């Protein structure tokens, strides 16, 4: 339990700090849109390039991990669509919050727990799985925004344009390209990316807190309830099943389930703001899921053991 508290407390603390800074007007309101833009176009891509370029796959069971995380992600997309079909009155912008709330994962929490629970081997395998997930999830989320926030029609040209213009996709592509080419980043460049990436997490979380309104929970209960069910019940079960089906065992299986048991990513709020989603409901989903995971993660870990 202490491991979970240690991993989640910084997340909640930064959300609370952003909430207090906005309510006390210690920082002008005009700061937050600029901070969100900086995070979206510079800090987050730097994080993706650094994390994906530095992974050495080697002799790890990378194919089994890819099959497990890929299968679980697409299964979660199906659950999101089913949840939306049961509540068709939900608008396109609200659907994007449901989508991100049910598909994304908090990389920081997942990696922190993996290292504390499974040591260096767990951290490496979690980083490898997270690298696969980051690319797949960003492509899916940008595609969902392109369709849902527009006229609801799947215009392949529009989706393609949005993918090509998205800085997160570019970050993933550059990171994977550098990795595949076997290029080692110079220390100066790698160090710069590391520093930029470290800024993405606190700035993004404080932006979530600044946007959070306690009264929005009742207003956005439908995407909140559905996304929590998918995130904390459906995804861990599917990940456990696929891990067993693909032959993962031991630490690798535990890490695979762990990746799909954590709350959604704070970066979902930044993407929602920049692509025209329902950022109010996204802030609610991020905050509530983070709070709930204090209770759901111990249960998941107990079942794993």
UniProtKB/TrEMBL annotation:
Originating species: Citrifermentans bremense
Family stated for the protein in its record: Belongs to the auxin efflux carrier (TC 2.A.69) family.
Protein name as catalogued: Auxin Efflux Carrier
Q: Where are the transmembrane segments?
A: 62-86, 98-118, 124-147, 168-189, 195-212, 249-271, 283-304
Entry's Pfam families? Mem_trans
What domain of life does the native source organism fall in? Bacteria
Per UniProt, the keywords (alphabetical) are:
Cell membrane, Membrane, Transmembrane, Transmembrane helix, Transport
- Please provide, in alphabetical order, the Gene Ontology terms of the cellular component aspect for this entry: plasma membrane
> What topology does it adopt in the membrane?
Multi-pass membrane protein
Gene3D superfamilies registered for this protein in UniProt: 1.20.1530.20
Provide the protein's localization.
Cell membrane
InterPro entries, from UniProt? Answer: Mem_transp_PIN-like, Na+/solute_symporter_sf
Example GO biological process: transmembrane transport
Q: Does this entry carry the keyword Transmembrane?
A: yes
